[in-house]
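Troubleshooting: if your tokenizer reports a length mismatch, compare against these two reference records.
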Amino acid sequence: KSSAVTPEGLHISASGGADLAAGTGQFAISAEGKDIVLPKESPAFLPEAIKDAWATYKPAGKIEVTASAKIVLGTAATAPATTSPATTQNADTTHSPFSVQDWTVSLTANTLTLNNATWSEAIHDITGELKANAEKITFENINGVTGPVAFGLNGTYDMLSGNCVLGGAAIADAFPAKWYGKLPTGLASFLD
């Protein structure tokens, strides 16, 4: 078993073994960190889609992280998957030297801010938990503030079907005038 700590304070541990002669192996990797300050630029190891989202929404603040995955190397990585195709990092596992299986990630926002250039105002004071695995993303007790509006939501996103179910509530102590221009025309006319 090996472990390390990143400069940001993320504790990473790995255990497992490899058969070098056969070119196979399995490793369990886990990561945990509290009060991790998000960097301005996305970490280089993230997939392009997440890097693009990072650049678009400019997350800032602190999070807690818990993650785990099983890495399978060699011929075991090309064996028929017993789980959904979304469980592997590489879509073409027949030619990949490894696969990522049974992964889970939990992110807890403590004081997160999102700031998209097309938004009227940033969303700040975001708290709550996002849990993800190969099948779904769950949003639990996500709360935040934008202008005079405070909101809360819960929901799930099914990674395989694309179905998303969100529910929540918002309370405003004043009319969110800066967001008014972002409303669909019919709703804006109704509010006038």
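Reference record two:
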Amino acid sequence: DVVIPIGQQATDLLARTADRIPESTAIVFAGLNVDPSALCAAHPNTTGVQGRASIQANVDLALHFFPKTKRVILLSNSNVQGRRILDEIRKIEKFHPQIEFVPSMGESASSPRILDAVAGGGEDSVALFFSWFRDEDANLTSLRYLKARLRKGAMPVFVLQEPMLWDGAFGGVYTELEPLGTALADFVSEVLS
């Protein structure tokens, strides 16, 4: 038997309930920016595949196309991915002292804060849009509203996950999901054989 959690939420759920899964059952996680440490600690027969969006590569890409940028607004969530992105941004800031990095993520990722950050973005700003949810709570109504607000503004938006692409957004540097799915299928096939 194999259990395949896809994404951080499913991986976290299995970590919390790992005592119900026999040790002989393999768990193969997959996703973008997944932190499997809790799951690996809770279940000994765990492995997986993942992709990561490079924050540095996306900042460099945005500044290449929009060299007059003075603010980079970072839109993400409050889970492990959001905290990892925030840590990476803190390392990048020192190499771009002329840029103000405005994180709307981590514990501060709330609808009003993100919408305020977006409203503050103008022609001298660029948004890097990683994802949109708070912990286990997806807010699709606000996502639609946020996309509408971003489309109306003058600020370029780089999205960093393939499913998040929409008209008017730039595709940033990200891991494509199809090769990740292929790697997952190959890995599961190997585990089962």
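Descriptive notes for reference record two:
- Residues 118 and 150 are 7 Å apart (CA to CA).
- The helical segments are 8-16, 37-42, 55-65, 80-93, 111-119, 140-152, 177-192.
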